[in-house]
Amino acid sequence: MDKTDEKIIEELKKDGRMTMKELGAHVHLTGQAAAARVLKLEDEGLIESYTVRVNEKKMGYPVHCFLNIYTDSLNHQPYFTFLENHPSFVRNNYKISGEGCYLLECRFPSNEVLDEWLVELNQRVSYKLSIVIRS
Hints:
Blueprint: H1 3-14, H2 20-27, H3 31-43, E1 63-70, H4 77-84, E2 90-95, E3 102-108, H5 111-121, E4 126-131
Antiparallel strand pairs: 1-3, 1-4, 2-3
Helix pairs in contact: 1-2, 2-3
């Protein structure tokens, strides 16, 4: 991977929908040369996928929070089952080292819904909640 490949990745992070001609203009290549480089980066696994970033507030999920999850036993399946049953709220679940067993990122439509969800979660694991003030 060279500097041009790095620039291609940076440009695609800004706008993954740009045409190869537009990308080429940004990185001083022809559209065809840019497309060839993108295919190579995909084949090498450096570019894994393309995605859409959604405005969560406009989608009805203004409450953004992180939870450090603490399990009481070695059996984490009740926690995983709970998450599977509430997929609309869970954004990311990371197994971590340090404080807690997992770092859970969630979005909720209101503090009331968050509170109800936390009551259910607390039947399976302990947690420490952090609400995002500004991102």
